[in-house]
Give the backbone structure.
Amino acid sequence: MKVAVYPGSFDPVTNGHIDIINRSAKIFDKLIVGVLKNPHKTPMFSVEERIDMLKKVTVDMPNVEVYGFSGLLVNFMKEHNASVIIKGLRMVSDFEYEFQMALMNKKLDDNIETLFMMTSSQYAYLSSSLIKEVAQFGGCLKGLVPDQLIPIIIKRAR
């Protein structure tokens, strides 16, 4: 069974994230969405809330599982018998950082491969930070995040 992990903070999850999840789930036997608890960021939503949101929007994807984690990604992957990291790239500017992370993960565990997946063009401008800003200032989130999450994000942003 080929297991991949799509790690991220997902604060909040966007339609760009869902695009990568959908496409990755078609390639791998199992896709684990790993919600990172990052001590260097102050999130809008707790890890538990982000996991809950992701579970709501992936409920119809039988081979997708969602878990929280902290610490090294390679350790999380070992716990779940995963061998591939999925990283979504929006722009070329994302590549330099993600490439550095891929090399470090490979150094930490030579059995791990990183697959870079370009986002679909309609989501290339999306980021969780932009979503939070749009919500905070009362902008429309339609088409940017899953519809069922819009009220949750708006309520938290205000």
Observations:
- The first helix runs from residue 15 to 27.
- The CA atoms of residues 9 and 36 lie 5 Å apart.
